Amino acid sequence: MRKFSFMMMSLLAGTVSAAVPEFELHIRDHLFFPATLDVPAETKIRLMILNEDDTPEEFESYELNREKVIPGKSRTVIFIGPLKPGEYPFFGEFYPKTAQGKVIAR
Amino acid sequence: MFLTSVILVLQEILEAALLLSMLLLVTRLIESGNKGLIANRTWIWSALACGVLLAWSYALYMPVIAEWFDYVGQEVTNAACQLLTIVLLLVFIYGIKNQVELPGSAHTLVASFCLIVVVALAIMREGSEIVLYLRGIMGQPEAVSPVLLGAALATGIGVSCGILLYYLLIALKRHIALRVALVLLAFFAGNMASQAVLLLTQADWAPYTSQVWDSSALLPEYSVAGQLLYALVGYEATPSLLQLAAYVGAFLMIAASPVFRSAWFRQDLV
From the CA of B201, how many Å to the nearest CA of chain A? Predict the structure, then answer.
């Protein structure tokens, strides 16, 4: 069983590092950098979000169907897509006035 | 800050409050005339206490948990809690029997254990976000009072919605109320299954499946009606095929239980 789960883990890890393009999104002073993120369409994306603020933030997007809390001074990963070409707004639910951005898939 | 706080806290409170209402209703309706366990409501206080404790600890250890499994620990933990919730709901629902239970019997203990854990896990998942948010705000003195005021107001509204649902249904005829409560519980199980699948997809632990429909123009998830429907029946504007399958599967598992079938089709058991 342990051997099997190890194989599953390495299989998962293998697919992650080998095939999926990775993009970075930073949170600083309750703002997203870059506020506009260009990604390829029809491809699964590994989105690494780095929260440089001391305060937690919640990445949320109704269009991407994603939601995740990111504690202060920490990083996290969200997989998105494959996306059809188009614009997908996202925002920080804890500081929605300033923390806004969008993913553009093309 | 005030409005953000109201919206955020209300979203989290609403689901837990509605769940507690449904469970209270089901236990009251199946046990009227039966002074067994669940008729005495002490399990609620255990559930609330455990839930608050779990929410606080989960928020506290979130930075560590979030890094598990290559930064998808949060999704995996939440999905595991949701799947556990479904299992315990099934144990509870399938365990409902047509006989008077003595307080302290094995069956009553299992039933109250299920109820306590289900409610505590809901409070943990929803409450930990509130705890994280509030702890973040505490570092900004000017934001503290509007945010706390908003959180208090939202808690009031959320709890009121739960109480309103309870008394709306309890005012109905008993067999109708039981039918509605059981269907809502089946919707809740479906919602948990669909959310778990969504989280596992977000973590890349479940495969991507195509979107079944897009009703975001008709009824956006962020609208008031969308939010209410989300909390009540797990409304999604853009569900994936796997989410829909999980939703239907969990719904049917509750609907296949003896208590559900007898409430809807026979009325002999309850």
Answer: 8
Number of domains forming the structure of chain B: 1
Letter string b/e over residues B12-50, b meaning 16 or more CB atoms within 10 A of that residue's CB: bbbbbbbbbbbbbbbbbbbbeeeebbbbeeebbebbbeb
A87 within domain boundaries = yes
Range of the domain at B83: 2-266
Residue A68 within any structural domain of the chain? yes
**pLDDT of the residue at A16:** 47
Nearest-Cα residue of chain B relative to residue A11:
B205
| Residue A17 in this model has a pLDDT that exceeds 90 | no
Assigned domain for A14 exists: no
CB contact under 8 A, B70 and A72: no
The stretches in chain B having pLDDT less than 70 are 31-40, 98-104, 267-270
pLDDT score, position B96: 82
Shortest distance between the Cα of B1 and any Cα of chain A, in A, equals 8
